[in-house]
Amino acid sequence: MTSTTWLRWLGLLFVTAAMSGRPADEILGTWRGSSVCSDRAAAPSCNDEQMVYEISTIPGKPNMVKVQADRIVDGKRVPMGDLEFTQDAW
Q1: Of the chain's two ends, which shows fewer C-beta atoms within 10 Å, N or C?
Q2: Cα separation, 23 vs 26, whole angstroms
Q3: What backbone torsions phi and psi does residue 75 show, to the nearest 5 degrees?
Q4: Which helix (H) or strand (E) holds 12?
Q5: What integer pLDDT is reported at residue 19 of this predicted model?
Q6: pLDDT tens digits for 12-25?
Q7: In this structure, are strands 29-35 and 76-86 parallel, antiparallel, or unpaired?
Q8: Torsions phi, psi of 82, nearest 5?
Q9: What is the 8-class DSSP label of residue 38?
Q10: Cα(72)–Cα(42) distance, rounded to whole angstroms?
Q11: Are strands 49-57 and 64-73 parallel, antiparallel or unpaired?
């Protein structure tokens, strides 16, 4: 999964939570799913992968969450990176 793809997924998650009027707590936790290549002609090196996202609060940073993205390789989590997001409205 490219970083652009998982950023789009996360953006959709945050927009959905914001539109529903739910508090930030509703998105915290572990999210699992599949990342499926949609256009192998445009991205021939793309691989379908299982993903795990850990979404947590950041101590001392109100209205922010950290998203840790991992992919599963041979049954083990391999880190893809962390991003911090600011909550504008819920």
Answers
A1: C
A2: 6
A3: 80, 5
A4: helix 3-20
A5: 45
A6: 565 555 544 445 67
A7: unpaired
A8: -120, 145
A9: S
A10: 23
A11: antiparallel
| Residue 52 · residue 75 · CB < 8 Å | no
Which residue is it, tokens 């041979």? 74
Give the C-alpha separation, 71 to 79, whole Å: 7
Sequence letter at residue 72 = I
| 17-35 residues labelled b (16+ CB within 10 A) or e (exposed) | beeeeeebeebeeebeeeb
Q: Which two tokens stand for residue 54?
A: 């850990």
Structure tokens at 74: 């041979």
What's the pLDDT tens digit per position in 18-66? 544 445 677 899 999 998 888 999 999 988 999 999 999 889 987 788 9
Phi, psi at 59, each rounded to 5°: -55, 135
Dihedral sign computed on CA atoms, order 51, 33, 76, 42:
negative
